[in-house]
Amino acid sequence: MASNKGTLYIVATPIGNLDDLSSRAAKTLRQVDVVYAEDTRHSKTLLSHIDSNRRLVSLHEHNEAERAEDVIALLLEGKSAALVSDAGTPAVSDPGSRLVAAVVAAGIRVCPIPGASALATALSVSGFAASSTDVLFVGFLPAKGKDRRAVLAHIATHTGAAVLYEAPHRVRATLADLGTLNDARAACLCRELTKLHEEIRHATVAELLDWSKEVEMRGEFTLVLGPLPEVESAADAADDAVIDAALTRCLDAGLTARDASSAVAAVLELPRRRVYSRCQSLR
User: Fold this and answer.
1) What is the percentage of the chain residues whose pLDDT exceeds 70?
2) CA-to-CA distance for 7 and 74, rounded, in angstroms?
3) Confidence class for position 238, pLDDT limits 50, 70, 90
4) Full-model pTM
5) Phi and psi for 34 in degrees, rounded to 5?
């Protein structure tokens, strides 16, 4: 017997250029009973652009758990709903994952309507082969403290590509922190992707930091860090001076002795015990 439950559609929306909205997404946003949006004022412009008069209801990180109950009740009545974020794909560095989990747990169908994503868009122009095989998606870094240092250490030890989102007022500080760990790492910094003032820069982290100090940071940024180069010498070839220099940079960046040792051991392909021993001698 056919289910009389509705469907929740996870609809990707443009990250800047309204023409990037797919015809399937537009059709869905015209046909569902309710559109749940991260910011109803922002999404109202999108719905107006496609001549959709569907009811808009807010669903953001502060009310997602509570709103999930309303969405499930609606779907159990046999009605349909769509979830959109301000830009890109919902639940990817945006609200939505808790709602999807709740709807799935209730035995209700969830249907993805794919489209724009700053993650995929930035990787496509990065030029890094690792973007096809080994990608660490970080999203937005924690603003400060222990959590931020832990994520930075994780990035430093990841040998493949890494992708971060950053706000204009924090991008310079993020580049500085990353530069402390490895300022020679190749990177691709994307600003205002798909928008009028789109800018894509390929350079090292150090070069991007220098550039950021000379211009006003505006717009939304997506940063792709390239893979770490393979260590040319064997583990035994790394002398204590190289280890000490790397450890000092990590410790100066605020990493704990344990995190610094793990990061340096991974990058230099050395036994962690040896690196940690050197770290203790520096303290």
Assistant:
1) 96
2) 10
3) low
4) 0.78
5) -140, 140
**CB distance 106 to 76 below 8 Å:** yes
Cα–Cα dist 51/43, whole Å:
12
β-strand partners of 118: none
Strand 81-84 to 7-11 pairing: parallel
Q: What share of the chain is helix, strand, coil (3-state, %, to 5)?
A: 45, 20, 35
**Cα–Cα distance, 197 to 150 (Å, whole number):** 33
Residue 236, exposed/middle/buried by CB under 10 A (0-12, 13-18, 19+)?
exposed
Give the residue, 26 or 248, on which the prediction is more confident.
Answer: 26
Q: List the end-to-end C-alpha distance of the chain, in Å, as a whole number.
A: 70
Do the Cβ atoms of 212 and 223 come closer than 8 Å?
A: no
- Is residue 136 within 8 A of residue 163, CB to CB? The reply is yes
**Single-letter amino acid code for the residue at 28:** T
Strand order in the sheet with 34-37: 55-58, 34-37, 81-84, 7-11, 109-113
- β-bridge partners, 157: none
Longest dimension (CA), the chain: 72
The tokens describing 51, both together, are: 């001549």
CATH superfamily, region 119-225: Tetrapyrrole methylase, C-terminal domain (3.30.950.10)
Sheet with 221-225: strands ordered across = 135-140, 161-166, 221-225, 186-191, 199-204
Q: What is the pLDDT of residues 9-67, one digit of tens each?
A: 999 999 999 999 999 999 999 999 999 999 999 999 999 999 999 999 999 999 999 99
Instruction: Identify whether the C-beta of residue 113 lies closer than 8 Å to the C-beta of residue 22.
Output: yes
Query: What integer pLDDT is reported at residue 234 of this predicted model?
Result: 46
Q: What digits encode the pLDDT tens for the residues 250-278?
A: 988 888 888 988 988 888 888 888 888 88
CATH level 2 (architecture), domain 7-116: 3-Layer(aba) Sandwich (3.40)
